[in-house]
Amino acid sequence: MSMNSKGRQTSPDALAVSGHKTVSGNRGLAQAEKLIFEIGTPRRTGVDFPALKGAKSRLGGRLGGMERTEEIGLPGLSEPETMRHYVRLSQKNYAIDLGVYPLGSCTMKHNPRINEKMARLPGFADVHPLQPRGTVQGALELIDELADWICKLTGMPAVAMSPKAGAHGELCGMMAIRAALDARFAKEGGADNKRRVLVPESAHGTNPATAVQCGFTIDSIPATDDGRVDMDALKAKLGDDVAGIMLTNPNTCGLFERDIIEIADLIHGVGGYFYCDGANFNALVGRVRPGDLGIDAMHLNLHKTFSTPHGGGGPGSGPTVLSAALAAYAPVPYVVREQGKYKLIEDAHGTDSFGRMTAFHGQMGMFVRALSYMLSHGADGLKQATEDAVLNANYVQASLSEDMSPAFGGICMHEALFNDDFLKGTGVETLDFAKAMIDEGYHPMTMYFPLVVHGAMLIEPTESESKAELDRFIDVMKGLAKRAKSASDNKDGADFFKAAPIYAPLRRLDETRAARKPVLRWREDPSA
Ligand SMILES: *Cc1c(COP(=O)(O)O)cnc(C)c1O
Fold first, then answer.
1. What is d(CA 163, CA 105) in angstroms, rounded to the nearest whole number?
2. Which domains does the chain have, with CATH numbers?
3. From CA 354, how far away is CA 179, in angstroms rounded?
4. pTM, whole model, 2 decimals?
């Protein structure tokens, strides 16, 4: 076994590659673990309940003869077995607390622990949405204060706090736009034809989906070679029937749409509204106020920009800021302060509000975390977080620009985008490159998105990575890029990438089959 100068083993690789298998299936500290259905039994439990007395009801009794007569069949484990089961599973996963997560804020960035502490305060965590208003004044004040921060940071006059995700915020904004257009038609008459929404190719996929959901048709605008809205194409598409535009800024290529003010003027010029997807506001906070750009509606993803854990599908929160032209159409409920008391306005009747989007007032836990993030950073800290996020992405892009191939020249925002030009002729593809990153201890970056870039690799380091961590990541990416290029001189070279990952608990899975034919029910293997 070879060792490095610090006495650490340098190449366990050879063992793994030659098919060295342990007796147990464990790999050192990585324990093989079966499904809970395979290791638990219905008769075991971690708690000691007294036997139930008088639970039997006669046929036709209180349960109407519906009592369970057989075992429920849920697997039980003792407390230590339960702990071990879930700890072993958690160790098979990659975590933001383990290392760089190049998917960035869109999936998970560092969540300061102070946010979690605040969200668990009983006055926030245990309130019920139907509690008398007088007993939840602090919670309402928090929503109001957060709304105030959001309005100040965006330079917008109003915000709807209830949308529960980015896409839900888009729905809120487009419903407000639809309500404003309908009101204009009811008042001024004319042709009721404002149904076409322009959506640049560089917009997020949820944008066209939202517009269609609100009864609009989509007209796509191509991107230029430098990854931005093609202004000539945009101008050619303008017309009386344009209801508005849905633009993502920074766009999905991680670039600032530099013609944004002209775009706003052009859309307003044909009587349309400007929806801006603000999910990537973390590249702008403290530097740019969307209200100064002529935007009419924009959602924020509290769960991206202002941290809050959300990987794996939730929870989210998508407050949507609205311009003066749209504010009156905002959904209920909203918080107002009257004579020192906070009230919830819940009734939309007799107002221009388009109605209600959610059962209650929004995602309280996310509100607490976001305000905690804002207050602990302060205005100067929020600005610095933005600057660090953009600096880190540009550091990655610049450091890798010779070994990999940046998709566009120039400065990026919070994400560095590469195409697969540097892999041409090597036999290695974006997917293989990403799988090799797993063996190096990194979660892969976003792959094959945005679609406008061939073999895309989109890296968002976020503001919270130190230079030392970024340098380690960059060294790995450079090393892999060099190895891929040398693969073209060496006919077995690409095999290294095609075989990856070899150190993951599971290797290459048939992801398409898993998505198309998911196995949703465990059955005991009859052959076992
Ligand atoms: C994440 C994201 C969305 C959607 O947000 P959800 O909270 O996942 O619904 C929309 N647009 C952009 C640019 C995003 O990054």
1. 19
2. 116-375 (3.40.640.10), 379-516 (3.90.1150.10)
3. 6
4. 0.89
* Ligand 1 binding residues, C-beta < 6 A: 106, 165-167, 204, 206, 248, 277, 279-280, 301, 316, 318
Task: Give me the pLDDT at residue 4, please.
Answer: 52
User: What ligand 1 atom has the least distance to the C-alpha of 168?
Assistant: 9
- What's the DSSP call for residue 364? H
pLDDT at 54: 66
- Structure-token match 């976001």, residue found: 370
Q: Atom 14 in ligand 1: which residue has the minimum CA distance?
A: 279
CA distance 396 to 404: 11
Residue 12 pLDDT: 47
Which pLDDT value is given to residue 73?
Answer: 79
Residue ranges of the chain with per-residue pLDDT less than 50: 1-3, 8-9, 11-15, 528
Q: Both tokens of residue 58?
A: 């006669």
Q: What pLDDT was estimated at residue 345? A: 93
- Measured over the CA atoms of residue 206, residue 508, residue 109 and residue 141, the dihedral's sign is positive
Structure tokens at 368: 């607490």
> Which residue in 469, 496, 505 sits closest to 101, CA to CA?
469
* Sequence-distant (≥ 6) Cβ neighbours of residue 383 within 8 angstroms: 285, 286, 287
